Amino acid sequence: MSVNFFLDNPDLQFRLEQLDLREVLELKEKGYSEAADYPTAPRNYADAKDDHRIVLEVLGEVCGERVAPRAAEADEEGARFENGTVTYAAATLDAIEALRQAELFGAMLGREYGGLNLPESVYSMMVEMVARAESGLMTVYGLQEIASSIEEYGDEETKARVLPRFARGEVSGAMVLTEADAGSDLGAVGTKARYDEATGRWYLSGVKRFITNGLADVSLVLARSEEGSTDARGLSLFLVERDETVKIRRIEHKMGLRASPTCEIQYDDTPAILIGKRRFGLMRYAMNLMNGARLAVAAQGLGIAEGAYREADRYARERIQFGKPIRNLPAVARLLLSMRVDIEATRALLAETGRWVDLWKVYERAVGEGGDEVDAAMRARHKQAQALAETLTPMIKFWATEMGNRVCYQAMQVHGGVGYMQEFAIERLFRDVRITNIYEGTSQLQVVAAIGKLLNHSLDPLLAEWSAADYPDDVAAEKATLDELTGLLGEAIDALKAQDQRERVDYYAVDLVEMAALVTSGWLVLRDTIVAEGKKPVARAYVASLAPKVRAAHEVVTRADAAPLEAFPVLLA
Amino acid sequence: MTGPGPIDSVVLVKQVPDTHNVTSDAMTRDGTMNRNALPAIFNPEDLNALEMALQIRERHGGTVTVVTMGPPKAANILRDSLWRGADRVILLTDRRFAGADTLATSIALQKAVEKIGRYDLILAGRQAIDGDTAQVGPQTAEKLGIPQVTYVESVLEIADGRITAVRALDHGTEVVRCTLPCLLTVVGSANTPRPPSARRRMAQKLAATPAEYPSLLAAWPEFGTQEALAAYVRERDLEIPVWSADDIGAEAATIGLAGSPTQVHKVNFVVLESTETRTVEPTPDAIAAMVSELVHEYIVG
Asked: Which residues from chain B sit within 8 angstroms of residue A118, using beta carbons?
């Protein structure tokens, strides 16, 4: 039988089944009205869910049969730079060809451009599988956000020209934001955009750095359109179709993700098209782009973790020490169990995040198009979805990528010495996962992005809803624990909110975000026990492990001890 | 080089038990195959033949028609063929086809191809992984009275009514030229079969033979009745045509068990029951002794 990364993963299949997209799809599919015009459009909800399954099954086969077997080769050969030209590894090119043959590009684009009109929540499952197969490839396949941003903010002519090529997989995209002196602080971007009155066009000049998949044919570039400005309000977003004025100066030699070329790009009076409105480049469009990318990177962290767990699990079954497979040793079993449970809990949180992002997007559009006919209920739902999407997105980016790092660390530990050697896949996964909690905003920046909303109790409606649900009797103890922990989370939020010293809030924000992620994912795993008997051991193990962590974090946050802050200027003077 | 017109291909495929992943209950005590124990898959080299036909279509235009003879469940590989890009598929199924040897199979396929009518190329996998005879392709060519090129690894050119192909042989390759129409049997090293397309699978998920309508209706109850479902399927050209022996004009005596002169003389049922293991000490002498014993017993070398 062929290897299929969807069919061999019961938890991923469970997540897809449980993913309730009724509300999302009713709006996204415009009452399922496209079936008459497009053969791939669903006739109803069940048909749409079946489509999602088909897409994941087809992608699962490509990942298992074509991509994963050549992952080590893709890493070893890596992307190359010669005479100003970047070339993917042969294995990467074959993987792209297979994805093209399977017609899996244009996942989220509308059907009018040849896309599949898939929701973000399903797309992030696709990204997870691609990352499990070859995490470098994820940066080629997983940058479909760029096409979505063009669809959302571009002009009709540009969309009609560019988007069908994305949908056919003929072009790939890049998100060109970072510069040498503008990394986390993108407001400092210096690449210049000049408007030429004579031609009525924009031209870009400057140097961009650390550009993932910078060889892309179509890029979205952040540049300074307002001469004399110095902050984010002077930046606009531009679309560049690569031509001879775009020079790739070098690619980086990286620790991991070697199949993915990270480029330094020079623009020299490069013609560009303004996307959306001037001055909103960073604050609206790039932020939106990054939010999508953050979900994708969370899925990448999760996918690498899944791969690492499977490597560790297999090794622990095969490796005999003390006369038995090492998985029978409690110390090793503990590592494996922790990995497995963390992965399932994170997958639940990612799916829930994706659902709220989807809800936000469909209501954003409905409210925008509805004009005066939008009722108060719809506005309220839109607002709620936005608040939850904006809380959960940075939270899952932080959570899933830190989890991915932890799981790879544990998986290498299970391997012992051989895991440190290049012959074993975990060595590659360990290198690859390390970037996930750095790029698209470090974990520290995700905390900054999440904390404001969290302090406004943005999760409360969800937590209340989950607490009010009916759970099986034999997980009543876990339910009671989660109620207690939810109370602690509320206290911690109020304590930090009442804190009048800003630096203490900043210092302890990470503990609060961790607490929130633990409590939220705990509820999600418990909720799974309502429909799946097999989830009960997962829920019990997970709640048992997270409860003391939440209690400890509660103590840390509510005390908000000044000692570390006072020690800083003394110790690190 | 004169550009040829579009090339119409017919691909002969077979659903087979997955003998590459044999489990312990794959054989019954009387030496026949336990077909329920092994999953039914698309014969691997038939996928290479389909891929070659699709690549020829991409280069020259034309159509790809896929035909299989088998039980009703063989419709599965026809759907798979549609999802990978076939234009049209046909299922030959009839109780009277059952028990066919390679001769009776090739006669049924010949009749089916003749019913299809126009074609430039027929492609088939080199051999099926259940019988491993590699005879059906060549026999079908003989019955049709057309030339054949076996063991094809690649097609170099199709021009002026002729095809130039590379044959993969044991000790090298051979380039041959042949007039069209002809039949090719394709080896596994020819290409990497493309995956099914997600979009085609979504658009053609309801492709089915009429016999499958009841189960399809169970899966998609919103159609209400089989008639409504059938109308929907036909309207979208998704009905998989089913041809019986009568449809292709095959005489009863030439097909199925009746048309099969092959007699199985004897089946040897080999049971490996030895559970004995031996531990060889990791010393040069002990290893040398083991190798020498294996060579002496004709196990290796």
From this structure: none
- Domains in chain B: ranges and CATH: 7-259 (3.40.50.620)
Question: Mean pLDDT over residues B155-164, rounded?
Answer: 96
Active site residue A440: yes
**CA dist., res. B284 & res. A375, Å (int):** 85
DSSP assignment of B142-160 equals HHHT--EEEEEEEEEEEET
The number of C-alpha atoms within 13 Å of B115 and in the hemisphere containing its C-beta is 20
DSSP B97-131: GTT--HHHHHHHHHHHHHHH---SEEEEES--TTT
Q: Evaluate whether B122 touches B183 at the Cβ level (below 8 Å).
A: yes
B179 reaches A (C-beta below 8 A): no
- Cβ of B195 within 8 Å of Cβ of A66? The answer is yes
DSSP A327: G
pTM reported for the whole predicted model: 0.93
Give how far B296 is from chain A: nearest CA, Å. Answer: 32
Question: At residue A377, what is the residue type?
Answer: A
A58 to B205: CB separation less than 8 angstroms, yes or no: no
Predicted complex: ipTM over 0.95: no
Count CB neighbours of A374 within 10 A: 15
Mean pLDDT of B162-187: 96
From the list A44, A47, A58, which residue is nearest B198 (CB)?
A58
pLDDT for B77 equals: 97
Amino acid at position B169, single letter: L
**Are residues B198 and A1, on separate chains, in Cβ contact within 8 Å?**
no
- Of A522, A513, A507, A524, nearest to A566 (Cα)? A507
Interface membership of B202 toward A (CB under 8 Å): yes
B218 touches chain A (CB under 8 A): no
Integer Cα distance of A434 and A440 in angstroms: 13
Q: Domains of chain A (ranges plus CATH)?
A: 1-171 (1.10.540.10), 173-279 (2.40.110.10), 280-453 (1.20.140.10), 459-571 (1.20.140)
Lowest-confidence region among A340-354, B19-33, B264-278? B19-33
Q: Is B192 on the interface with A (CB under 8 A)?
A: yes
- Residue A177 sits at φ, ψ, to 5 deg, of -115, -55
